[in-house]
Amino acid sequence: MDHTLLGFVILYLVLSIGIGLYAATKVHSASDYITAGRSLPMIVVVAMVFATWFGAETVLGIPATFLDENLGATISDPFGASLALILFGLFFARPLYRMKLLTLGDFFRQRYNRPVEVVISSAIALSYLGWVSAQVVALGLVFNVLSSNAITQQEGILIGAAVVLLYTLFGGMWSVALTTLVQMTVIVVGLLWIAKLVGDMPQVGGIAPVIEHAAAAGKFEFWPPLEWAAIVTFVAGLFTMGLGSIPQQDVFQRANSSKTERIAVWGTVIGGTLYFLFAAVPIYLTYSATLVDPAMASELLAKDAQLVLPTFVKTHLPDYAQIIFYGALLSVIMSTASGTLLAPSVTISDNIIKEFMPHHRMSQKRLLWITRSVVVVFTVLVVAYSLWSLQSETSIHQMVANAYKVTLACAFVPLLAGLYWKRASNLGAELSIALGLLVWIAMEFIAPDAALPPQFSGLIASLVGMVAGSLASPPHRA
User: Fold this and answer.
1) What is the CATH number assigned to the segment(s) 2-395?
2) Structure confidence by residue, pLDDT tens digits, 340-361
3) Residue 248: phi, psi to the nearest 5?
């Protein structure tokens, strides 16, 4: 079966590259590449929002955390992640869409000044390193399991990164949109079918027995103990991702590619809601695996809980179910990886590199060439970081959770204040960024395990900086 399964996976990868290359025929300018010409309908925007976040973290990382700990440990994702998408749709999508921006970094230049744009754009781009690497590490893990260790995880990382690079490089946002529409269909249909198959197994017996077993094992414990430190850690976990993910290029890019303002708002809200609801499916599947084969589950839990679900599928499900599952898993990972690879590359090229070049020489074609070059360079950095993370044994869940600390500490307050507080000034934004970053980095060294997490201290400092700077030096109105 290994060869058949691997053959189907290779066919699927080739199909994805083909769709990406077809998408390249729709790219005639940097605007097409970055925002798909702001022409995408509701179904595509919902699919992109859902599938961009429904990644390796959701299928492998969240269930592993649930098995190791409990439901409360998943507060950052899916709870915080869904909250971010819904809040973005309700409060940020409409005003940002009306500004007709190319990137989120453009907002900081228009609302504040050039230094604010460069620093925040750099922070946003940097935050994606862990996020994209988490997807690439997961691709490596999938290829390793699929090939029965014939392909090492390191080799799998290189193969996975090359495939994602190929179809993202040429088609840009059009490629992300078209491949995601196909991939979301595979994800939803595939995982629901697998869930039904697993539910029919005699050891499982449907959804209710799994829920009862998990509840009896204390897995649904959600709220923290009524202690100050535990409550603060819990709330910080929710808001690190719930607020830190809002000032992100990939979320903005999806809303900004919409055909209308209404689609930008509700496409994001619906996508975020579907993400939260559907994140329960991999948790159900993974917990069911512990009931079907407790020995395998306990052995893998001691080694790496992220392996429980893919190993269970490979050893306990029929051939066609394996093909469906691994097709869905690859869809999940590649749709997230392509979108999150494009976002930082666009930010770096449009908000950092472009501004250092003579404006009279910056044609759309030249910007497109620069953006594609950055996509290649960023992929190389992602591969390097992914290989390092294997050595340091950083989990996929941890890599994703770490990704949003920097944007929470320095980008969220300037974005919120810039949209909703007329008195927010350049000095306020500069102090907000400086204090947020300084306090966050200092606390990472001084008290990384404090009750108030370092990035949350950074958020508070960022808020203080914005208020103090804006009151001391109000904005000059023409």
Assistant:
1) 1.20.1730.10
2) 888 899 999 989 988 777 765 6
3) -125, 140
